[in-house]
Structures are given as structure tokens and as C-alpha cells.
Amino acid sequence: MSTLEVKDLHVSIDGKNILKGVNLTMKTGEIHAIMGPNGTGKSTLSEAIMGHPAYKVTQGEVLLNGENILELPVDERARAGLFLAMQYPAEIPGVTNAEFIRGAINARRPEDKPLSVRSFLKQLDKTMSVLDMTEEMADRYLNEGFSGGEKKRNEILQLMMIKPKFAILDEIDSGLDIDALKVVSRGVNQMRGPEFGSLIITHYQRLLNYIVPDVVHVMMGGRIVKQGGPELAKRLEDEGYAGLRDELGLDIKLVDEEA
To answer: Which parts of the sequence belong to the ABC transporter domain (predicted)?
Structure first.
């Protein structure tokens, strides 16, 4: 069992404080969801955990199995077992999907024991069939010319092939129709087990109807202000964030109220 722990994390970008003391602990075998209004810091948390250089950690720790990873570069965090499915995946011309995924897999293996091409292709074909992806997707350049739904499926394809300890899924449901949402959810659910944990960032309950979380965290004002089970997400869907904010006595202005 592995543990990912965020302790009193403060993060700023361009001199503006976004995260103001986030605390969160999760273990492999668990699926956690983070919900919250726009502008509260959900994506900032994911970028800070993975080490995006634009996000400056001013206080706190991110511990993977008790070791602070904040001084590690992005590639070493990935080798240690972290994975980020990005909200807006980048296009990389000249590098095929298959080349990228095999390279990522072998980067986490001993140099003298790379995954054979035959084994890789067998796993790739099987995984792509789970996600209803055509074979030609493997030979296309990474995300180049992909639709929004194709990019999201491709992120889950990478996740299922690389098999990290912890995956942060940043709004993988955005822009998906119901059929694509079911396919993406199927892939994440196949990963569930004692060696895998996921932190899902989402605005909407509908994703959590298909990937039922063990714990739901609510972020407001750069902090986690409440946590509970799946029923908390359903409450937010019904009542919105303002009611919870008022119940907790928080002095926070929601983005939708600023107009």
C-alpha cells in the first residue's frame, strides 16, 4: 500500500496566493474526488503536486510514502508513480501515441529490462479495445488533430498502460457526451484495486455516478472545507456551493456571485 499526503500546502502563481493550506491524505485502493466552485484552486493543486514550474509552493509538503517530493523534477515524480491526466492535453507533432506510451512505460523500468515490442503491442491492442479506440489511433501523432473526446480517451489509455500508483484526473469529464463519459469511466474503474489510487477533480456529479468515490472533498477559497462520502457530491449537485458555504460560516465570494 502506498500513501500520498498533502500537508498544509500553500501555492501561488504570478504572486497571487491560490492554495492557502490544503490538507489531504489518500492511499492506494481509494478513489477520492475534489469538487468546488470555479477559481478555488482545484487545478492548481494538481499542477503543484506534479511540479509545474509556474506554480510556486510557499509552504507545506507533498509526501509520497513519507518522502517529500517537492524538490523532485516532474519526470522523477512520474517515475515515482504519479500521473496527471490533464484538462487540456498538449499536442506533440512527430511523436506517435505508441512511441510516447512505450517510452513512458520503459522510463519506469530498469534500463536493462525494457518492455518488448511484442508485449507492448499486445497490451496496447487490449487496452484500446476497452476504450473503443481504433487501431490507427496508435500511429497518430500525440493528440494532434484529436477531438476533445479523443484526447480524454487518450489520457485514460496512457493511464491504463503506464499503471501509476496515483493518478490525478483533472476534469476528464469536461466536453464528453454520455457515451464517451461511460467509456472513460470504464477505463478508470478497470484500474481500481489495491495498487492504484486516484484523485478526481470534477465540477459535476454525473461523472461520480460512474466512478463512485470513496471520499469527496470540497474546496473553497483555496482550502478543503468539508469531506464526506458519495452522498456529499449528490448534495452539492442538488443545492450548489452557496448553501454549504453559508452553513460552514465561510467568508468566501463565489465566482458566479461576482458579476
So the answer is: 4-246
Which residues make Cβ contacts (< 8 Å) with residue 11, sequence separation at least 6? Answer: 17, 18, 19, 41, 44, 45, 48, 55, 56, 57, 58
User: Measured between alpha carbons, how far is residue 183 from residues 82, 122, 175 in Å?
Assistant: 23, 20, 14
Q: Tell me the residue type at 192.
A: R
Stated pTM of the model = 0.92
110 Cβ contact partners less than 8 Å away, ≥ 6 residues apart: none
State the distance between the two ends of the chain, measured CA to CA, in whole angstroms: 46
Strands 92-96 and 56-64: unpaired
Per-residue pLDDT of the chain in tens (259 residues, 90 and over written 9): 999 999 999 999 998 999 999 999 999 999 999 999 888 899 999 999 999 999 999 999 999 999 999 999 999 999 999 999 988 888 899 999 999 999 999 998 888 899 999 999 999 999 999 999 998 999 999 999 888 888 999 999 999 999 999 999 999 988 888 999 999 999 999 999 999 999 999 988 899 999 999 999 999 999 999 999 999 999 998 888 888 888 888 888 776 554 4
Domains of the chain (ranges plus CATH)? 3-92+164-257 (3.40.50.300)
